[in-house]
Amino acid sequence: MNAAVLYGNEDIRYTKWPDPDLRPGCVKIRVKACGICGSDIPRVLKHGAHFYPIVLGHEFSGIVEETAENVTNLSVGDHVAGVPLIPCMKCDDCIRGNYSQCKHYSFIGSREQGAFADYVVVPEKNAVKVDPSIPFEQVALFEPCTVALHGVKLSNYRGGGTVAVLGGGTIGLFALQWAKIYGASKVVVFGRSKEHLKVAQALGADAVVSTLDEDLWNRRWNQQIKKGSIMF
Fold it and tell me: What are the tens digits of pLDDT across the range 16-37?
């Protein structure tokens, strides 16, 4: 298959690569879209990979190409979103359901081969079936979208009031949308990038504040405090 293979620091090549082996309990996915996470940048540019060579890519979508034995909930042709975290399911944290705290986890596109390739193999539970009408580019955003949702849930937010989102990157923009879905009366996004703040406005932010302008930041911050409660 074709893949973008990281051979060393600042050495990523689009080249031929062996097809991944289909293991029991896993599915082989034909990758249709894969995002570039902020964590992928230092993996490529700052000696951030666990080993070389490696195929990165953990925000992905695709179509199930093949299923192995013991796969019961997915079929060939299903459209799926990828879930990169592979917890051990045996440690105390996993038993309590705190999978992200697993000390023995693996991770697609980091600790094992990822989705910057024609195919990727993942455990059945790491492929979430989605409606085929959803564009693959949107499905590939499943992982960062759920990261933002997790943050909102950890805050115990229940809707109403004013929400402050500190940072207008990918996760912040998703947090903005989740806050709106949860019923925020007003969402203010703080960020350093003018381009990100423009996107935030397009996605429904009621106000945006550039943190590069300290005086403006302070004035608007004080105004927002006076107008309503702000949730972090």
Answer: 999 999 999 999 999 999 999 9
Sheet holding 11-16, edge to edge: 11-16, 2-8, 54-55
Pairing of strands 26-35, 59-67: antiparallel
**pLDDT single digits (tens) 85-125:** 999 999 999 999 999 899 999 999 999 999 999 999 999 99
Sheet with 59-67, strands from edge to edge, namely 119-123, 26-35, 59-67, 79-82, 127-129
Tell me which residue has tokens 């979508």. Answer: 61
Phi, psi of 194 (to 5 degrees): -65, -35
Query: In degrees rounded to 5, what are phi and psi of residue 16?
Result: -75, 145
Nearest to 58 by CA among 33, 84, 40: 84
Domains of the chain plus CATH, in order, are: 2-140 (3.90.180.10), 145-231 (3.40.50.720)
Tell me whether strands 54-55 and 79-82 are parallel, antiparallel or unpaired: unpaired
d(CA 209, CA 221): 8
Q: What is the dihedral sign for C-alpha 95, 99, 102, 106?
A: positive
